[in-house]
Structure formats: C-alpha cells, structure tokens
Amino acid sequence: MADVPESTPKSPPKKEEFFAPERVAEVLQEVNGNASAAARVLGCHPQTVRAYCKRYPEVQAARDEGEERMLDTAEASLVNCIERGDGWAVCFSLKTKGAKRGYIERQHHELSGEIAITEKPGTVEDAKALLAKAGVEL
What we know:
The structure is a single chain. By secondary structure, this protein is mainly alpha-helical. It has a domain at 21-109. It is built from 6 helices and no strands. It has helices at residues 21-30, 35-42, 46-55, 57-84, 87-96, 124-133.
C-alpha cells in the first residue's frame, strides 16, 4: 500500500461562496428577513439563505433586524385597527396583551364517566387514598 503524502488535506477544502455574505444580508433587509423571499431574489433555495445565516452572524443579524421591522409594522397596523374600534383587533389585543390584566378566555371542562382503578389496594385506607387522589369524595 502506498504512503499518503503528509501534505494531503484531511478534510475537503472549503467551498467558495456563490454569494457575498453582504449581498445576502442586503437582500434579507429588503425582504424583511423572509428567507424564502430572499432566495427568490437571489435565485437560490431558501435553505441556502438559512445556511448563510448560520455561517455568518452578520447575515443572521440582518435577518433578525428585518423580522423585527416586520413585527413593528404589524403592531402599528394592529394599533390602527384598535383605534378604529375593530372588534376583532380589540378582542385579540385583550386576549394577548391584556391577559396579565385578567382578559383571558376561561374554559370550563366537566368530566363524567367511570373511574377505573388499576391498582389493588391492600387496605380500606389505601382504597380511600386512591379515591381521594382521583377527586372522589366519600
């Protein structure tokens, strides 16, 4: 068996990037952080854009900033709808942001049926404890 020269790399050489990270970041800013939209602009697969985000912190930062801008826009639109008195917007706001003030939907669940005891208690006290644990009052 021939000896492998020591100059042979142990891992494959790094692939040259097709897009400059700055270009990917710029496009992500333009499309408010949407990886699929950025991929359409760049002419690549969305996974390529996500890979750039993982590889380059500045690209991920551009994506995060774009998503934050989009959220700011959505919140501003929601506020406009609330101020107009749109019922859905008022209700949504109270259920989410107003939850800490008690504006939450409470649901009442009533259970009925039989309780199956799968353990064989050793004493009457054990049976009473199992029933109490199941919420059965004697």
